[in-house]
Amino acid sequence: MSEKSYNADDLKILEGLEAVRMRPGMYIGSTGVKGLHHVLWEIVDNAVDEAANGYADEITVKIWRDGSASVEDNGRGMPTDVNTKAKMSGVEVIFTKLHAGGKFDTENYAFSGGLHGVGASVTNALSKWLKVEVYRGTVYKMSFSSRYDNDRKKWLCGVPDGPIENTGERVNKKGTFVRFMPDNEVFETVEWNYDTVFKRLKELAFLNKGLKINLIDERELYREIEADDGFGDEPKKILQPLPPREKVVFKYEGGLIDFVKYLNGDRAPLYAEPLSCSAVKDIQLKGAPKGKIKIEFALCHTKDDSESLFSFVNNISTVEGGYHETGFHNGLLKVINDYSKSNGILRAKEAPFIADDIKEGLTAVLTVKMTGVEFEGQTKTKLGNPEVKLPVEQAVIEGLSQLIAIKTNKAVFDEMAKKAKFAADDRIKHRAERDVAKAASDNDGLNLIGKLAPCSGRNPEMNELFIVEGDSAGGTAKQARVRQYQSILPLRGKPLNVQKKTALQALQNEEIKTLVSAIGAGFNRSFDVEKSKYKKVIILSDADQDGMHIRCILLTFFFKYMRDLVNAGCVYIGMPPLYKVYKKDIVEYAYDDKELDEKIKKVGKGYQIQRYKGLGEMSADQLWDTTMNPATRNLIQVTIDDVAEAANMIEMLMGDKVDGRKEFLAENANFNKVDGFIDKVNFKPETEAGGR
Ligand code: TTJ
Predict the structure, then answer these.
(1) Ligand 1 centroid from CA 409, angstroms
(2) Which H or E run includes 128?
C-alpha cells in the first residue's frame, strides 16, 4: 500500500475506490474475519433484493477451491447497456462508483437489504479480481482487478479489464453471477468461515419466504491428526484429507413461521402453529418526508420460561433490540391483557399483566423494513428510531385482533393468556417470597438472638454452621466449638417437612426462618450461594431414627430451597461416633460396629464400652474430638448430581415407607466421605482467647 498517509481532507479528494482501500474499516467495519464476510454480504444482499422484489427465486452462493466466492441469482440480470449520463454500462457503474454509504452515509435504501448500504463497489475495491456474468439470452462478461501500479506509484482499485462484452454465447437462463477474490493484502484473513456463511444464508432464507438459497463449498478439507512413526518419536501432525462438504439448500415456504418453529427447537410449543401477521404502516421520521414501514412477525409460546425474540431491520439482525422490539412487546401485552380480561382469565380486581409475563416462553421473529434507519448501541445493532415504536405496536394489535376474531384461534389465545396468568401469579408469589426471605436475612441481628451462637470470624470461606439436633446437644456444641469460625444453631424439635409445603408456608415456620437468616443468602429463587455466610453447613443429628428423620427433613429443605448450596458442595452430615472404647486413659471412638471390633482389639484386655444414644450424652471435649474438630472428625459431603434423582429420593425419604429410607439414603444419595486430606487441616488456633 502507498507510503503516503491520508487524512480526512485527503479522503474527500480521493476519487472512487482508492478511498475504500485506504480506509477499509470505514466501509466494512474491520479488516478482520467480520469485514471479510461483510464484502460477501454486500454481493448476497444485491441478489436478495432482486428476489425480494419478485424477480428472482433462487440464489447460489459458492466458495471455490481457490478461496474466491461467487453469488448467482436468477433475476433480470444487471443492466448491461450504457448509461448515457455516466457514459458507462450499468455494471461498471455498480462496481466502480462508490455508492453513498459508509460511515458518513445518511441515506438508506427503501425496503431493501444492503448490510450497511455501501454497495458492491466496496467488494470490488477490496478484491484482487472480480468477474461478472449477466445472462440475458446471451452471456455478457466484465471483469475488474486491483494492483499497485509501479510506474504511476498508485493503487489501481477495481479497475475494469475492459468494457462489458456480449460474448454472443447463448444461455437459456437469466440472472447475474458475481465471483470475486478477497485481497489478502487487505484482510487479516481471507478464509471463509463455513458456519458463518451457513447461518446467515439460512437466516436470509427464513426472512425471504420461498427463496431458495444454495450453499456450495468446494474447498478441500483436511483434518489434522497425529501420526506415530512407531519409533517412539514425538507423534507427527499430518493432514488427512476429508470428503468435501455436501451442497445445502435452504428454502422455507413458511418464512417467519418456519423460523419460529426452528428457534423453538426441542422446546414443546404451547399451541401447534405459530401465529404470523404483516402490515405496512405510515411513518414520519424527524426531518424526513412521510415514509412507509413494513412490519412482519411470527410468534409462538413454548412451555419453557425464557424469551427468544429475534428482530431484524432491513434483514439486519438487531441483537441489541430497540424501538421495534418495544412496540412489539407493548402490542402483545395489550392484546393479551384485553383478551384475558374479556375472557375471564384476569378477573376485574386483578392487576393487568406486565411485559415480563407475556415474554415467558415466547419465541418470536420480528422484522421491519424502512428507510432512514439509525443504528445505535455498542455493536450498532440497536434500532434507534423512536418513531418505529407506535406503528409496530399498532400492527401487532391490529394483526392479532384479526386472528382473535377467527374462532379456531380461541384455543391459541387461551393458552397464551393462561401462560401469562401463570407467569404473573408466579411473579407475585416470588416477590412475596423474596420479601420474606429478605426480611429474614435483613434483621438477622434480631431474628437470631437466643437461637444462633454465631462465630466471631467474618470469613465465609473458613466458617462453619452446625445445625444441631436438640437444645442440650446444642449447648454442648456451644461449649465445644472454636468460636472464631464455628457457629451453632440448635434445633428445637423436628423442623417442618417442606416437601408438601409451598415456599411461603415454609417461610412462616420459625426454625426455617432462622435457618434462612443464619445462612444469609436468600431462599428459593432468590438464593445466591455466593452470599452464603458459611462454606460448610453441617447437619449434626443423633444416630437414631429421629436423627435420621431430622437429617432427611433438612436435606429436603436444602434440595428444595437452597439447591445451589448442595451443588456447591457446602452441605455436610456430621458423623458422631456410636461407641467409646476406653481403659484408664486410653480412649478410642467407633463410628460403626465393624470399627467397634477393631477398636476393642486396639484397646485390649480390660476395655469398657460406652454406647452413645445421642449427641447430648457427650461431653464438650468428646464432641469436639469426635465430631467437630476438623482434624479428627468425619464429615459426609452431600452432593446430588441428578436433580431428578434427588426428587425421587425425597419422595422416598419422606414417604411412608420408613424402612426403605435408610437403605435408600445409603444407596442413592451421592454421599462422599470427605477425604481426610481436605478436612483434616486443623483450623483450631493454638492459643485462643475467649474460645473454648
Ligand atoms: C436493475 O435494473 C434492470 C434489471 O435488473 C436490475 C438489477 O440490478 N438486478 C440485479 C442485480 N439482479 N441481480 C443483481 C445483482 C446480483 C448479484 C449477485 C450481485 C450484484 C451486485 C447485483
Answers:
(1) 42
(2) strand 127-149
